[in-house]
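ENTRY TYPE: paired fold submission
RECORD: A
CONTENT: sequence, then C-alpha cells
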Amino acid sequence: MEQQQLLEVANDLTNDNICDLINMVAPRLDVYFGLLNMRCLSSGVSFASMNGTIIQVNCETADLEDLADDDFIAGAIEKTTLKELSRAKVLANSAHALAEKINKARFEGKEISDKQTVKLCEVLAVLNGLLEEAA
C-alpha cells in the first residue's frame, strides 16, 4: 500500500476503529518507555481502549501490581539503588574524614572557620538526601 493510500485509510478511521486495529496487531507491538541504568524498558501491548475521547494503549506491564514485579525492571531498580548507595558511601567517607579533621583541629586548639563547618553540613545534607532516595 502506498503512503498516500495509507494516509487516506488512517484519516477515514474513527478512534474506535483505531482501537480495534491496535488490538488486532497488539502481538506485533512493543512500547519503549525509556532507559533505567542503561536498560531499555519496554513492554508488549495488552490492548487499546477508549478513555474519554483519547485512545489509551495498555501495556502488559500495566497488569502488574507493581512494576518492580517484572524481573527486568526490578534489576534496573536494584542497580539504581546500589549506585545511589555507593555514592552515599563515598559521601559518608568524605564527611567522616572532614569531621575528623575538624575535631583534630579543635583538639589542637586551632580556630575552626564557619566555612569548614558549613562544608561538613552541606556534605551531610547531600548524604542524607541520597540515603532517603535509596530507602
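RECORD: B
CONTENT: sequence, then C-alpha cells
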Amino acid sequence: MTDTSTPIVGVDIGGTKCAVLIGSPDGEILHKTVFPTDTAGGLDKTLQNLWKAIAEMLTHTNGQPPVFGISCGGPMNSSEGLVLSPPNLPGWDRVPIAKLITDRFGGRAYLMNDANAGALAEWTWGAARGTKDAIFLTFGTGMGSGIIINGRMHAGRDDLAGEVGHVRMADEGPVGFNKAGSFEGFCSGGGITRLAQSRIRAAWQRGETVGFCADAAACEKLALKTVADAARAGDPLAKGVFETSAFYLGRGLAILVDILNPEVIAIGSVFARCEDLLRPTAMRVLAELLQCGFPCVAMTAHAALNTAVANDVAADLVFAQQVYSLGRRGDVLMGLSTSGNSANVVNAFKVARVAGLRTIALTGQGGGKLAPLADVIIRVPGSCTPVIQELHLPVYHTLCAAVEAHFFG
C-alpha cells in the first residue's frame, strides 16, 4: 500500500466467526484477524469486538480515510447499509452497520450480502475469473449463493436472489432457516453438525456407543471439526453424515446447473476444509442427475456457410466441406438420402471415410451409391420418396432412443 492510497478494509460478519482485514486493490490480503462471533453476548458484544479489530487493522494503514467493504448474511438493505435480522445473528435487527462504522472510523462503507461478495471476489480474482456466468456457494454456518449472469451480479429486487439454502431437498432432515430438509439443513456447517447430533442420539437409543462423542454434554457442544476428524479416521457414523451431506450437495448443484447453466461453481468455507469428504459423492450424484447430451452439427443448419460453399466451390460439396472442417476421427456421420444417390450426401460420406469417421446411411430399398460407402446402411422397404421419408422417421427416432438408452440409461 502506497503512502497516498486509500486503505481498503474488509469486514466479514458471520454467524460463527468474524474477520477484519486490510487488502490491496488487486485482491491481496495484507493483514487479517479472525475472532469468534459472540452470539451469546449479543449484538453489543460482537460490535465491541469488531471495533477493537478494526482499530487494530487501521494501525497498519497510512491514516487516510478508509473504504470499508462489509459482508454479512441476509436479509439486508445494502443500499442503506442495514442488516435485517439474519437467522444466524440473533439480535441484529435493523442494524445500520455501515453508518455505525463510518461514524466511528470515518471514510466510506458499503454493505453486501456475503454470498454476493464471495461471488464478486471469485469472479474478479479467483476461480470464476474470466467467466461470464458463475455461482458462488457460501457453505458456511448457512448456505447462500451469489450469482453472476452475463458478467453482472444478480442480486434481485431486495438483495434476496440466490437464497438457495431455502430450497427443500427432502421431506425430512436437519433444519436450516427454520425448514427441515432444506439445502442449508444438509449443506452447511450448522446443518452437518445437527445431522450428526441427531444420528448420535439415535445410535445411543439403539444401545450403541459413538467413539467421537462420549455423552450428552459432548453432543450438545459438538463441533463440525470433531465430526470431520472422526470421518477421516474411519468412524462409520461420521462418514455417513458427510456422505448424506455430499449426496444433497450433488443434488443441489444439479438443480443450479440445470436452471442457470454456469461456467463455474465455486464453493467456500466448509467445502474447502472438507473437500476430501464431500467432493467424490457430490460429483457422482451431480453426474447422475445432469441432463447429458452429445455435441452435434446439423449440416443443413448454417445457411450462410452453405451459400458460400455453393457460390465459391460447388453446390454438391456443401456437406463434404463441413465434414472436412468439423469432423474428427471417431465421430459419427449420419446421412439421409431416399435414393442413396444424393451427390451432397455421397460426397460427404467419401470425405468421412478418408477422415476416419464412422457413417450411418438411411436410404430406400436400393441403397444407391451410399451402400458401399457406409459402415451401417439402413434400407427401408419403399421405392418412392414420400413413402421412404415416412419410414425414415420412426427409424431415426429409434436410433436416437437406442443411443440415449446406451449412454444415459
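NOTES ON RECORD B: The domain at 303-408 is CATH 3.40.50.10490 (Rossmann fold). Residues 44 and 91 are 9 Å apart (CA to CA).
STATUS: closed
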